[in-house]
Design a protein that fits this description.
The complex is a heterodimer.
Chain A: E1 5-6, H1 16-26, H2 32-53, H3 70-75, E2 80-89, E3 92-99, H4 111-118, E4 127-130, H5 132-137, E5 140-141, H6 147-168, E6 172-176, H7 187-198, E7 204-209, H8 218-222, E8 228-231, H9 239-246, E9 254-258, H10 270-283, E10 289-292, H11 302-323
Parallel strand pairs in A: 1-10, 3-5, 4-6, 6-7, 7-8, 8-9, 9-10
Antiparallel strand pairs in A: 2-3
Helix pairs in contact in A: 1-2, 6-7, 10-11
Chain B: E1 2-3, H1 20-30, H2 35-56, H3 73-76, E2 80-89, E3 96-107, H4 114-122, E4 130-133, H5 135-140, E5 143-144, H6 150-170, E6 175-179, H7 190-200, E7 207-211, H8 221-225, E8 231-235, H9 241-247, E9 254-260, H10 270-280, E10 289-293, H11 302-323
Parallel strand pairs in B: 1-10, 3-5, 4-6, 6-7, 7-8, 8-9, 9-10
Antiparallel strand pairs in B: 2-3
Classes of the chains: A alpha/beta, B alpha/beta.
The structure holds zinc ion.
């Protein structure tokens, strides 16, 4: 493999037939086997699309997941439950889980779908987990009464799942922590918990963090115990690159830099994306730089998502050609 | 001792009950129904949540802030001088609000909450309190592109909200609660808060309350005792330091005693609530006590919120039985 690898962050849009099937399943109109069949069909389409676009490191698309926290909470049936709908803003609600009992790993939660996706391609497919800090921060806690205890207990659960993924052959394990920058005073706890998941894991470890005021906590972010940080850049005018530049001596990781905005249906031009990549190359060498969208693409349409990934691949190829990176 | 709500109430119930308001907003957004039709659903849901609070046994209810997207924009977008911008996290919660941006001098234009208050009062068997986000918090949670200094913005908001408070009193509001959670993060601005609240509530002939949440008022409580309000609301769940603060002050006002956790589904046993009430009675006599959740109830699923209010009422009943 060479420098400037292209990838995706995690989620891809669910095709219309799958969205309909998920609703039908929720109201009992189709059974689990039928939903599983369509979920796999959509996953196969995700893999084919990414191969066709020419990404280097693929994602499985998260077709089986609705909410990144509720998905795991619903599988941890002995220690978590779903409380009901809670509003996050405007007319947006989420199904907020509850920790009801001692957290423990009950069995594989992500292996089947990862293995299925990886079986469809020769390119590496990232294994995707929701991090322990985010799992707890986005849930109610009726059992521990201490954020720290709950988060560290959750870390052991996520760790076990990560080990199973590596055993199954995953080469990249991504542990997403979108909640990480919520409370600057808890950044050390974020790091400690993530360390439980990644320490000594025989895979390349990644974390994706978004929505936050990174400036005040960047020292912590730069030192999180992962091999690769995945950060949004396009959406914030590449300001985060300045932070990385400032912390250059302590920032030893790979960076996956977002070069297209996922919240906007407007497609970036190839020149815009190339300019973003060149900015990244001013700060980091190509072998430590991955190129991807800002965040998961699930809120875009399928065509928009494909077009955004395509412009990333084309722009990256041109930059590599121009700078003679192979 | 009376039982009340600290603010909001969850807008939608869970299955099998239909999420009518959520559906109506989605349909309005798609253009399938008009704004008037949505307003009718908002009215009906307001009636529902007032009835739920009464059913739980509250003595003083709110309209649940059913029409509010969040505590900031509902007020700011109806004042002159603001534009509404992107989403930003509300304190350390997992909820977001659209941040108001101050682009011109802030002025009151017309009543913001009067129609809501009148509607709620007309449809409630219990007294209704009007809720207003306070001038300090509105300023602190907005982006200021005009004044360049917090003090003139806070005072301009105080003047604008003074007009609103007057309009509420004219409409018959007998209890007005001003929410100032942001002051707990900026205790050094206590004197500015005092100046603003004094201006806002000058000549307001109603029972007035100032509520805080997400922290303790330790260090600022003596100043809160000097505010021209009747009730001070404190959050003892996320602000256990309020117990220490109580020891250091002669609590001369009515206390809004926030003791059940409106941010967690764990059900407090009624006896635990009764014990807390016993404990606070060392500092504030029962006749100067409102008992309420730690903050607005919108962080909980609707059914849990109702159950929590029932627990609260039961805890108050048990505490009263012990005292007698
Ligand atoms: Zn993201």
């Amino acid at each position: 493999m060479s420098g400037l690898l292209t990838t995706a962050v995690g989620s891809l849009p669910k095709p219309g037939y799958l969205a309909k099937a998920r609703t039908a399943f929720a109201s009992g109109r189709i059974d689990g086997a039928e939903l599983d069949k369509l979920t796999r069909q959509a996953t196969a389409e995700c893999i084919r699309m990414q191969e066709d676009v020419g990404l280097d490191v693929l994602v499985h698309g998260e077709m089986e997941r609705g909410d990144m926290v509720a998905y795991f909470a619903e599988l941890l049936t002995e220690s978590m439950a779903i409380s009901g709908l809670v509003r996050s803003y405007g007319n947006r609600y989420y199904r907020k889980p509850i920790i009801t009992d001692e957290l423990h790993w009950q069995g594989p939660m992500t292996i089947d779908m990862w293995r299925y996706a990886q079986g469809l391609t020769d390119k590496p497919v990232k294994a995707m987990l929701t991090g322990p800090y985010t799992m707890v921060d986005w849930s109610f806690d009726e059992h521990y009464g201490s954020r720290r205890e709950a988060i560290l207990a959750m870390a052991k659960v996520v760790r076990r799942e990560a080990e199973e993924l590596v055993k199954a052959g995953a080469k990249f394990v991504q542990v997403d922590e979108p909640a990480a920058s919520t409370r600057p005073e808890e950044m050390e706890l974020v790091s400690e918990a993530l360390g439980i998941v990644t320490q000594g894991l025989d895979a390349r470890t990644i974390t994706h963090i978004c929505y936050g005021d990174f400036a005040s906590v960047f020292h912590h972010i730069a030192n999180l115990p992962v091999d690769q940080l995945d950060l949004e850049m396009a959406n914030s005018g590449y300001n985060l690159l300045n932070l990385i530049q400032e912390h250059n001596s302590e920032f030893q990781k790979e960076l996956a830099m977002g070069v297209v905005d996922v919240h906007n249906h407007v497609l970036e031009t190839r020149e815009q994306v190339k300019a973003g990549i060149r900015k990244g190359l001013e700060v980091l060498p190509p072998e430590r730089l991955f190129i991807d969208p800002d965040c998961g693409l699930k809120t875009r349409t399928w065509d928009e998502a494909e077009a955004k990934l395509r412009v990333i691949v084309e722009a990256t190829r041109e930059v590599k050609r121009e700078l003679e990176i192979d | 001792m009376r039982v009340t709500a600290a603010g909001s109430y969850p807008k939608i119930p869970n299955r099998p009950r239909p999420a009518r308001l959520r559906q109506a907003i989605a349909r309005r957004d798609r253009g399938d129904i008009t704004a008037e039709e949505l307003a009718r659903v908002e009215d009906e849901v307001t009636i529902e949540v007032i009835a739920e609070q009464a059913e739980a046994g509250l003595d003083l209810v709110t309209d649940g802030q059913i029409r509010w997207d969040d505590d900031q924009t509902y007020i700011a977008q109806r004042l002159q001088g603001f534009e509404i911008t992107g989403l930003i996290r509300y304190f350390d919660t997992n909820t977001y609000y659209r941040q108001p941006n101050v682009t011109a001098p802030v002025r009151w234009q017309q009543p913001i909450l009067v129609r809501d208050y009148e509607f709620a009062a007309d449809h409630s068997t219990k007294p209704v309190k009007a809720l207003i986000t306070g001038p300090y918090t509105l300023a602190a949670l907005s982006n200021d592109s005009h004044y360049g200094d917090r003090r003139p913005l806070v005072l301009a908001l105080a003047e604008a909200l003074h007009q609103e408070a007057k309009a509420l009193v004219a409409a018959g509001a007998s209890v007005i609660q001003v929410n100032e959670p942001a002051i707990l993060r900026h205790k050094e601005d206590g004197p500015l808060l005092q100046e603003a609240i004094t201006k806002m509530l000058d000549g307001i002939d109603a029972e007035t309350a100032l509520y805080t949440w997400f922290g303790d008022a330790d260090g600022i409580l003596p100043l809160l005792m000097d505010l021209p309000v009747d009730v001070i609301g404190l959050d003892f769940v996320s602000g256990p330091g309020n117990w220490e603060a109580l020891k250091r002050v002669s609590f001369s006002k009515v206390l809004g005693f926030g003791i059940i956790d409106a941010r967690n589904t764990r059900m407090e046993p009624a006896d635990e609530i009764a014990e807390q009430i016993q404990r606070v009675s060392e500092f504030v006599p029962a006749e100067r006590l409102y008992v309420n959740p730690s903050c607005g109830l919108e962080y909980l699923p609707r059914e849990v919120a109702l159950e929590k209010l029932k627990r609260l009422v039961e805890g108050v009943r048990r505490a009263g039985a012990v005292a007698v």
